Each structure stands twice: as structure tokens, then as C-alpha cells.
Amino acid sequence: MIQGAIPLKIAGVGYSVPETVITNDDLTKLYDTSDEWIYSRTGIKERRMVSGNQDAVDLGYEAAKKAIANSGIDVQDIDLIIAASSAPPRLYPTIGCLMQAKLGIKRQIPAFDITAACTGLIYALSIAKAYIACGLYKNILLVATDNNSRLLDWKDRSISILFGDAAGAMVVTASDDGVDDVIALDIRSDGYIGDMIEYPLPGQNCPLVKPCDERESKITMNGKEVYKFAARTVPQFVSEMVEKAGLKAEDIDYLVPHQANLRIIQAIQERLGYTDEQVVVNIEKYGNTSAASIPLALAESVEQGKLKLGSTAILCGFGAGMTYGGAIVRLRKGIC
Ligand code: ACO
Fold first, then answer.
1. Partners of 186 in beta bridges
2. In this structure, are residues 43 and 281 in contact, taking their beta carbons and an 8 Å threshold?
3. Does the CA dihedral 222-228-233-235 come out positive or negative?
């Protein structure tokens, strides 16, 4: 830790999922697939989906309210909002700005969005850590919310089976007892392989200049290569992070991985030598909820008593970019 840096406390977490459940069997109405094919390759049985005008801001708002209530902090004392999303409903106003208004925060605090795909929460936590450490902000709301279902090509059975919609939130504050809840944190990216997962926005369309080559706005993914990248890079990265922190895997109680594919989660679990009870897995019910995946898994497992507080956990994510990152955190009693 930097000399004189202010430690960070994870004060509260919360999550929200839409009501509508779409099962693997439901997807057979769209294309030739089966529950057996999807479940055996991904570990997914069903996912939640927004409907009508509901979007990632609504989901984020519900998750944020719970995280704030659990933190015990007055909403008016929040002095920064960072939202992370791969699929914001608008480029502007940002989710962060909309969240400030929805929460009724009266002061004109800063609010902004970041995009680091499924690693979004870890990236947002790293920014919050730096701001708190230097004393610039004290009470920061992190909201990770995604609604990828609206960007998918619903004729493409290899990608649209994977994603679900959800939100997770975390309130972090300047710690007043000298204990830092972020024991270690590391974020990375490999832009050289960014074309593995893409969602292009419309290109140049001004009739006065050469137009952009035609491209479709939809998520494309080389699933096999993403799988190989994640299964190769993430377990190695996580064990190096643990080692660099001067720890052994057995010093940390739980693993809360990004829920992209059960087989990738199992590869990380195997490398670290964790038991099934130590690894948080909810992909069966929610699919891959992108930026929301880690805080959803964390908050839900605490709420259900599967993850006992007063413990430590490795949060680890990877996603489009390609980005990846991890944090070893202390989970105090009362955060959920
Ligand atoms: N149902 C039935 N058959 C299917 C389906 C489906 N839903 N999808 C593909 N197939 C067929 C294909 O047509 C192909 O048939 P063929 O051999 O006759 O041509 C066969 O199954 C194999 O297709 P692949 O695409 O090669 O399937 P693969 O074994 O790679 O599995 C999967 C696909 C599950 C997507 C896998 O690659 C994977 O999990 N990758 C990782 C994805 C991931 O984690 N992404 C998110 C990370 S980051 C982020 O969220 C931004």
C-alpha cells in the first residue's frame, strides 16, 4: 500500500434481476437447439430478461438502492457514482448521471460510466480505490448493470444462448478503522485480440465524406477463441495475483468468478484447488450477465447465506476488450 493512502471499506452490496425467466426450452422456439446442448456446454439452464421499456438503468437503480441501504450511508452523502456497463441504453446521458437523478441526490456530484465489458466492476473498483486512497472522494457508489439481450442477434444460436440481464451494486467508503478491504487488485487488457468479441456502433454516414464500410450493429463473438483465451489466461492470472499478494489460495475463503461459462469457472477452481462450497456459481439461473455478473454472484450468495461474511474472496472477471482483472477483498459483516 502507498504510504499515507486512505484504506477502502466495502460498505454494502446489492443486486437486481428482471422478473421474466427465459429457459433453454423457450429458446427452442427460436432456433434448433436443446436444453441438453446448452447446459452441457455452458452450465446455463435459464436467464432473466428485461421486457417492454425496462432497461439497465432501472435494474441498476434497484441494485443501487439495496447496496446503499445495506451500507447504512445516507444517499445524500454519496460523492461519486461510477457505472459500468457493456450495454448502456444510451451513450448519453450516462447511466451514472441518470442514477444520480433517479436516486434523488441533490448535490451535483460527479457521475460517469466506464466500459470494460464483464470486467467492469473490477475496473470500477480500481478507480474507486485510487480516488479514496488519495482522499478525493469518500463515499462512492459503483453500479454494474447490463442488458445485452437487446443487442443480440436472436437468430444466432451460438451467442444468444449465453446472455442474461441483471445489475449489481457496491458502496465503498473511506475506511475509518484503518483496515483496507481491497487486499490486492490487478486489471489488464489485451487489445490485440479485441476482435474476439465485438459490438460496433454505426460508422461515418455524412454524405460529404467517404462512408464507412457497411457493418451490422450486433454482438459477434468467436466463442471457441474466447473460451481458449479465458481458460488459458484467467486461471494463471488469478494464481499469480494471489502469489504476488504474498498469499496462498488456502488463505482466501471464496472465489467469485465472472459467470461466463461453467467450464471456465471449473478451470479456475481446479487451478486454485478450491472445493465446490468455496466457489460461487449461479450461471445456471442467470447466464452471463456481463458487468453485473460478479456483483450479482457476490450479493446473492451472501443473501442466501452460501457465502459467510467476515471472510475473504477473490473476485475475478474477463470479457470483451479483451479485458480481465481480479481483486482479493475482505467481506465484512453487514454488507448485505
Ligand atoms: N444449439 C445447438 N447447436 C449449436 C448451438 C446451439 N445453441 N450453437 C452452436 N451449435 C452447433 C454449431 O452449429 C456447430 O455445429 P457444426 O459442428 O455442425 O457446424 C457446433 O454446435 C459447434 O459450434 P461451436 O460454435 O464451435 O460451439 P462451441 O463448442 O465452441 O460452443 C460456446 C459454443 C458455448 C459459445 C463456447 O464457445 C463458449 O462457451 N465460449 C465462451 C463464450 C464466453 O464465455 N463468452 C463471453 C465472455 S465475455 C463477455 O461476456 C463479453
1. 326
2. yes
3. positive
* Residue whose CA lies nearest to ligand 1 atom number 9: 158
Q: Which of 24, 70, 97, 118 is catalytic?
A: 118
Residue range 292-317, pLDDT digits in tens: 999 999 999 999 999 999 999 999 99
Angle between helix 56-71 and helix 293-303 axes, rounded to 10 deg: 50
Which value, to the nearest 10 degrees, does the dihedral of the CA atoms of residues 260, 263, 268, 272 take? 140
Q: Cell numbers 500500500 label which residue?
A: 1
Residue 189: all three cell numbers together: 487488457
To the query of whether residue 118 is one of the catalytic residues in this protein, the response is yes
Q: Kindly list the structural domains of the chain, giving each domain's residue range(s) and its CATH number in brackets, ordered by start.
A: 8-174 (3.40.47.10), 182-331 (3.40.47.10)
- What is the pTM (predicted TM-score) of this model? 0.95
Output phi, psi for 212, to 5 deg.
-70, 150
d(CA 55, CA 60): 9
